[in-house]
Amino acid sequence: MTHSPWPLRALAIGLAASFCGAALAANKAPTPTPAFASAALDALSNEIASAHTLDASWVRQQLAGARHLPRVRQWVLPAPAGTAKNWNVYRDRFIEPRRLQAAQRFWQQHAGALARAEQQYGVPASLIVGVIGVETFYGQHMGQHRVLDALTTLALDFPPAHPRAAARQAFFRQELGELLRLGQQGQVDIQRLRGSYAGAVGWPQFMPSSWAKYAVDFDGDGRIDLLNSPVDAIGSVAHYFQAFGWQTGLPTHWSVTVRASGEPLQTLLKPDIVPTFSFADMERLGAVPAPAAREHSGPLALVLLENGGQAPHYVAGSQNFYVVTRYNWSSYYALAVIELGERVRAIVPKENATLARP
């Protein structure tokens, strides 16, 4: 998904939930309950109409059929405090034989579009393939929830137990408005559109605002269709990363040997995934990136990925690693996407891999 408490799209939320097991349940569309209170819909309609320059009566008409999805409220809650994360387990969910086979077929089928996206936007084909593979298993799992129901539920009845409830509810109110605007423009069918429980849609699982800002007509048929055109999805994912500052040719990360402990380690981890330290700074604090990282003059981040009760995994992340986390605000997600794409690049026929690396 693109952007949320992990990113803006619903990608973040869906993947965050997968750590606590909610994602499996969320694959099944819940049974909706009766409509929302009329007064609440009236107020929300007026707010959306004003914010998105839409006709209030038309907005109210669209929202009239929205149904409440009680279980969605549970699925957007973060995992309980103390829930252990495990990079190895997370990685194995996505880098496994069935997904690798599907990825290879996808790359071979769309090698030309991937090469064109890499050339036009500077984003590696492997990263695009990794994102679409993790997001929807190459179009196989795009969500079964009516997006209008999901977004209206989260706009009007977001769970107050969430630590960022006010900000998240405002986010979903904004996304509902973006959905309605896309529908008013004829880009989506508001009443029929299906997606994730957090409102992400299509092959790349874009939230409505990401569709509006970053989706492109990459197959040249005169319309943007992230639901049925994998080529539009390829171009849109590449455009998204370019817009967030992808630097062509810059590696996303390097291996790193961490000897630091105590205060120096806490200093290194405090910025989280935000590149902050020079190579020399990291080395001085006790984290030594691979020698190839010396050629990179920009800042680095020490990225921590927990492994349950085992030793954690670390990488030295560049600005491009940070850019990948703008699609989903999770270092686990980012590294899974990167590694899936690289594994696929290694197994696709050489001519296709070369074609997608001009």
Structure, explained:
By secondary structure, the protein is an alpha+beta fold. It folds into 3 domains: 11-81 and 141-206, Orthogonal Bundle (Helicase, Ruva Protein, domain 3); 87-139 and 343-355, Lysozyme; 253-317, no CATH class. The chain is built from 18 helices and 8 strands. A 4-stranded antiparallel sheet has the order 6-5-8-7, sandwiched between helices. A two-stranded antiparallel sheet has the order 1-2. Strands 3-4 form a two-stranded antiparallel sheet. 47% of the residues are buried. Mean pLDDT is 91; it is low at 4-26.
CATH class of the largest domain: Mainly Alpha
What is the average per-residue confidence, as pLDDT, rounded to a whole number? 91
Roughly how many Å apart are the termini? 28 Å
Biggest sheet architecture: 4 strands, antiparallel
Secondary-structure element string: HHEHHEHHHHHEHHEHHEHHEEEHHH
- Total E-strand runs: 8
| Total domain modules | 3
Low-confidence stretches: 4-26
Strand order of the largest sheet: 6-5-8-7
User: So how many helices?
Assistant: 18
Helix content, binned percent: 40-55%
Strand content: 5-15%
According to CATH, the homologous superfamily of the largest domain is Bacterial muramidase
Question: What is the quaternary state of this protein?
Answer: single chain
Shape: globular
Give the name of the CATH architecture of the largest domain. Orthogonal Bundle
Question: Which class of secondary structure composition applies to the elements?
Answer: alpha+beta
Provide the gyration radius in Å. Answer: 21 Å
**CATH fold topology of the largest domain:** Helicase, Ruva Protein, domain 3
